[in-house]
Amino acid sequence: MRKLLFLLMAVMPAISQLHAQQKTITGKVTDDKETPIANASVLVKGTKIGTTTSENGTYSISLPSNSKVLVISSVSFEPIEVAIGSHNTLNVTLKSSTAALEEVVVVGYGSGKKVSSTVGSIAVVNAEKIQDRPTANAFDALQGKVAGLQVFTSNGEPSQISSIRLHGVGSLGASSTPLFVMDGIPIDPGTVISLNPNDFETISVLKDASATSIYGSRAANGVIFITTKKGSANKPASITLQTQYGVSNLANTDFFTQFMNTKELTDFWVATGYQTQAQINTLLAKYPNDTKWYKTYYQENVPMYQADLSISGGGGKTSYYLSGGYLNQEGLAYRSGYKRYTLRSNLNTTVNDWFKMGLNLFFGYDERQTNPYGSNSTNRGLALLAQPFYSPLDSTGKEIYGLIPGWSRYAPKYLADKIQGKDNNVQFNPTGYIQINPIRNLTLKAQAGIEAYDYRSSTVQLPSYVGSLNNGSASESFTRGVTRTITNTGEYKFNIAIDHNFTALIGQEFIDNKTPAFSASSTGQTDDRLILLSNGPSNRTSTSSKTEYSYLSYFSRLEYNYKNRYFLDGSFRQDESSRFGKDNRTAHFWSAGVMWKAKQESFFDKFNWLTDLTIRANTGTTGNSSIGNYQSLALVGTNTYDNSTGWGISAAGNPLLSWESQHITTIGANFSLFNRLRVDVSFYNRVTEDMLISVPYPYTSGFSSITSNVGSLKNSGVDLSIDADLIKFKKAYLTPYINFNYNKNEVTKLFQGKQYWIIPNTGVSWAIGQPVSYFWPIFAQVNSQTGLPEWYLPNSDPDQIINTQKDPNAVTSTFVPTLEQNTGIKRYPPINGGFGLNGGYEGFFLSVDFSFSKGKYLINNDRYFFENPNQFPGFNQSKTVLNYWQKIGDVALFPKYGVQFTQFDSRLIEDASFMRMKALTLGYNLPANILNRTEVIKAVRFYVTGRNLLTFTKYLGPDPEVDSNLTLGVNPNTKQVAVGLDVTF
Amino acid sequence: MKQFKIKFLAGSLIIFFLASCSKQLDKIPYNSIALSEAFQTVKDAKTWNTGLYSNLRGRVYGIYTFTTDVQGDQLNASLDFGNRNGAPHRWDFTSDDYSIRDIWSGYYSALTNVNISIDGFNKIVPANATETGDLNRYKGDAYLARAFYYHQLIQLFAKPYEPATAASDLGVPLVLEYNISAQPERATVKAVYDQILSDINQAKTLLSAVSGVQGSTRFTKDAVTALEARVKLNMQDWAGAKAAADVLISSATYPLINTQAAFTSYWQTDTKTETILQLQTIAPSELANANSIYLGFIPSTSRYTPDFIPSQWVVDKYEATDIRKAAYFAQKPLTIQGASYSNVWLVNKYPGNPALFTGANTNYQHAPKVFRIAEMYLISAEAGARAGGAAETDAQAKLNSLRTARGLTALSGLTGAALLDAVKDERFCELAFEGFRLLDLKRWHEGFTRHDPQNTNMLTTGANYYTLSIPANSSKFVWGLPANDITINRNLEQNPGW
């Protein structure tokens, strides 16, 4: 065998020499800092003759002497063509691909490629944009960064995750949250909070059919693909230490300062006859205070701290990235906070020329507490009902630790100490793959990943809590979720006649989830030091549960391009899910797309100002299965009577239950002018059909709703991203950007032949031909003659209330639910986006990021409590209630005293459009000449950063960013100021 | 070399492939079973029967009992009531009111289970005589539960039964079979009552062997009779109502309590003497709904912050010697809006049975009393008084039996309206805060004016509170059908005024 090989090798050159005169060219490939580039491809243009560079960047290639041009390329560098001429040595410098959009992305299975050569629309955000933010929530900083991606953080809990929607609300019943994929393995959106954002390399948002259809069943709301950092096999190790310290405060206190003070409240009481002056005098003699209660319930200057250490590098054929992170952030409300520890190890190794493997391990542990006293609780959410004449301080000025006299609620700190609720989560996300190239251009990859968590909730009521003295309670609950994902793919790249390039991919995927849980509780603990379950002798209970689901999928994709100028691609996927009826389990999804790199055409050559022009169009389908498990089954659940198990029907079931499907079509273009201005624009049309909706049933059926495939919804709109290099010098740069999305939402079909459906007690309505809208009684005015409130009478035909009727002569003073009609106000904001700039001079750098949402409306349910002195007599109220009708002729906000001031009507639907300064960072990088002297430190970066420093809104409630139809007792968003130091060794 | 590669590859891929390809797409839940498998044996029927009682326990007391009392004339809202149950108290509630919704949907979801059970029981073939007996009992329970739920629904959501108009007055939808897509119309009041009587008769046959005992936690033939008496009184079937009530009175199974200590303990610790049916309640896993609006005990100060406080005139209705006064009321120290009040009369009928506490303090838990003998005396007396003539003597006797047991003097020489008023007054006192008062006013066609509250400083002030006046014909005596059903089921007609 060996002999034969030797013989062959000896003969081969001789044979080729017969064909042509050969010559050898040697050289070195480096980057612009003269760092050698290993594994760069060196190819004789128009042939298959090629080689790759060695570890020190050198190459040697033997080629026909008539060869003219070498093409040299490497990942994350711009390819370059050099004329061979008569040279025997060719040293080449490759330029880094500058714009982030040129990043190589590994999305949608298969091997990575440049974003600019994918037919699908993929927005890549470099992770540095979301790093060093003073929040645990990685996606908060994504707000306003990607056109079409709406990110809202609904409250100020440090453990809060953002709600994310791409191109509007995709379904009226199932979830509208995109599919999250980390390094190829789908993860739960809730997992993101447990991850360390500093481990992210890029976050890619897959928007259109060409990018998402390959993910099939769960991709209807887009895909968010997180790629974590890798080491580099041929770079010296670098060690980075990042630390940050900051403080949090309420983002906006306007709401909290609009309440009446003692004088205003007591004068109001006397004026309305609720109390006599004599009663007030007695009261004030006992409680002579004027308290701003929000300061009792929300702390100020609450600290947060984070630190990360990462080491990345490689040697030989192995690269590594290791990191450890720590974050600790307290909430402003008591019993609120988040503490996270993370570890990551990403290893990749090339075993030999045909075998590669890698293993990413993520481990996280976090502890979280969220304030439980939200909606309808006077222990925080509605605590501003507290009368200002009471005080949280005792007569000596010391903070009361216990029951607050008069207000009769426990001091929030006392409550937090005595009734504790601590959750923790252990997160483990390992992903491994092996990749084989059995023959040239064929890549077979098997990847397996697990997402596993153990979530534990512990609540304790200490025996010293005076509300239940010497009788404590404890409860513990454990939930374990394990999702296994196994993906096998085969990818074959080939070309025909050189210019026809094909990539074919086939694959199979299996996903399987098990979530068992159990919990136990006991009471009767008598000592604060002994508060385990086992210390409580009474009321011992235990429960358990277990759920499962699985998906089995097959998929394929064919990509083709001609001369890297004309691109075509198509994909097909078949999915089955356990969530659907046995005979309706299978669904098929497909996509087809084209792209034209127009700038490459010769007729554009003369337009030097046009540096890039690419046009793309694609269409395809995706699915949505984000509903609960087992919903197709008619089920009998259990209950208990007299220590025996009983049965009762628990689910009506729907054997016909199947996939929600979506068809999305996108056309777009991106172009760049003078190599300075980059514009990306695309138009899309999403049509969702057979939506998974909880269809309402009359209670006489025994059920209130049954999940069924009904109705259609359309979202269409435009994404626009512009950024410009306003200043581009060696020492200084300034790059402003703007991202904008307009989305039009329209319900096109409903169920049971209905023209509209008002979701009970929400104010939200689905009406055919309308966007998802608020249908509520429309307030007309307070009648200046009678002092009574008046509402517009809706059309007397209930089928016609879609058409708003505001006839000044058709009003009523009797409030009934049937006053509901179309207010014309949209539930979901049509305009979202962000803008900002990045700049630098010498070592200084500045970045400012704003995000905005326009046309956002929110039912301010807080006002029902704070502007309703008849319904909540004796409590403090907003100052606005002073504007009530008192005599004939008064034009007042509120009716006469004695009549309900505030009803659930259009007055509570407020414009919650807002603009927020999400981030402001000013920093300084120590110059290289200073660092060089240390010989150890490679980079030092100081910065001051802020989050949510400015909020602009007309909204009157605590926080406009709440992503819901209504808000009540929210723990509002916070703002942070932090200083940080990053050092790289 | 290449062969090796391919083998290795094939091997590694097949491992994953096998792991994934085993057909794992048939997932069934662990906490429930398929409905199609739930009626196979008499043991299954027994499990459904257990479920029936669990459902029933969840549909008595709590909102099912106090919503009408809050709407009535005996209670006033404290300043600290926080608008809980405020809408029915002010009579400004609308058809999307949560209490209306929850009561309606609660009864109908229980009826769904009953209908499924009756249908399923009929498919089960008993293996022997014992099983036949058991199955009959389960069937009887199901019929009686259905009669009970429909009677509750018809009392709340329809006009009271008037023999002249019952055949045309709108009742509630009669759903007797499980059909998820049904859009039922409202049956007439008469049709609903006819169904109730028919179900009672079924139950009477099927439960004929189940003797009553004090404090039974399951349906007995006495419970059938008690419901029959209650239903027939509502139907103005005086003879029928009296006959049924007298069966229970004369059985002497449930003697009237006549000492203060026993009567207080009857309410506080759920002793069983007068109880024909109460539902099993076990701490901590089997708790009932609580009538928790009357006390609002604050453990840290040992004071009280109730939502609702009885009017002074209501307390004064009880004579000093009446053992009910001390059992139903207690004078407590209050903290309302930071101010202290002492010796305020509070409803203390449901203070919480200490055996059912799940913590250091009361959770207001009791074994819910569904039928008790005192109501039978009142039914017999009222039916007798209504029937007039010879029956009046017995009516007065029944009234006096109850009065003397409760520590009052016997009345004499009562006839006609005076007799009826005496019975009404006794009903007022005996059954206070058990959910009867408003329904009694409704069927008697009497309006009311709230008056003479205790200290108004601790009460919520306003036109709709302690001075509210409601005429007998107020449309909101008849509750509106929940907005949800009105919107979805176009075959339903809403009650006037909603």
Structural summary, described in words:
The complex is a heterodimer of chains A (985) and B (498). Chain A is mainly β. Chain A is 7% helix and 49% strand. Chain A contains 8 helices and 53 strands. Chain A has a 25-stranded antiparallel beta sheet that branches. In chain A, strand 8 and strand 9 (113-114) form a beta hairpin. Residues 1-20 and 98-102 of chain A have low confidence and may be disordered. Chain B has 498 residues and is mainly α. Chain B has helices spanning 2-21, 42-57, 63-71, 86-90, 98-121, 129-157, 189-206, 221-234, 238-251, 260-268, 312-316, 323-328, 373-387, 391-405, 416-430, 437-444, 483-488; strands at 32-34, 75-77, 170-173, 186-188, 275-278, 297-298, 303-304, 308-310, 329-336, 339-347, 369-372, 448-449, 469-470. Chain B is globular. Classes of the chains: A mainly beta (985), B mainly alpha (498). At the A-B interface, strand 24, strand 25, strand 26, strand 27 and strand 31 of A face helix 1, strand 1, helix 2, helix 5 and helix 17 of B.
How are the secondary structure elements laid out?
The complex is a heterodimer of chains A (985) and B (498).
Chain A: H1 2-19, E1 22-31, E2 41-44, E3 50-52, E4 58-64, E5 69-73, E6 80-83, E7 92-94, E8 104-105, E9 113-114, E10 122-126, E11 149-152, E12 163-166, E13 179-182, E14 185-187, E15 200-206, H2 209-212, E16 223-228, E17 238-250, H3 262-271, H4 277-286, H5 294-297, E18 302-315, E19 318-330, E20 337-352, E21 355-369, H6 412-418, E22 419-428, E23 431-436, E24 442-461, E25 472-496, E26 500-525, E27 538-562, E28 566-577, E29 586-597, E30 610-624, E31 635-641, E32 644-651, E33 660-673, E34 677-696, E35 705-724, E36 727-728, E37 732-749, E38 756-758, E39 764-767, E40 773-777, E41 779-782, E42 789-792, E43 811-812, E44 820-826, E45 831-841, E46 844-854, E47 857-860, H7 862-866, E48 909-911, E49 914-925, H8 928-934, E50 939-947, E51 951-953, E52 966-967, E53 974-984
Parallel strand pairs in A: 1-7, 13-16, 47-52
Antiparallel strand pairs in A: 1-4, 2-3, 2-5, 5-6, 8-9, 10-15, 11-12, 13-14, 15-16, 17-18, 17-53, 18-19, 19-20, 20-21, 21-22, 21-23, 22-24, 23-24, 24-25, 25-26, 26-27, 27-28, 28-29, 29-30, 30-33, 31-32, 33-34, 34-35, 35-37, 36-37, 37-45, 38-39, 39-40, 40-44, 41-42, 42-43, 45-46, 46-49, 47-48, 49-50, ...
Chain B: H1 2-21, E1 32-34, H2 42-57, H3 63-71, E2 75-77, H4 86-90, H5 98-121, H6 129-157, E3 170-173, E4 186-188, H7 189-206, H8 221-234, H9 238-251, H10 260-268, E5 275-278, E6 297-298, E7 303-304, E8 308-310, H11 312-316, H12 323-328, E9 329-336, E10 339-347, E11 369-372, H13 373-387, H14 391-405, H15 416-430, H16 437-444, E12 448-449, E13 469-470, H17 483-488
Antiparallel strand pairs in B: 2-8, 3-4, 5-11, 6-7, 9-10, 12-13
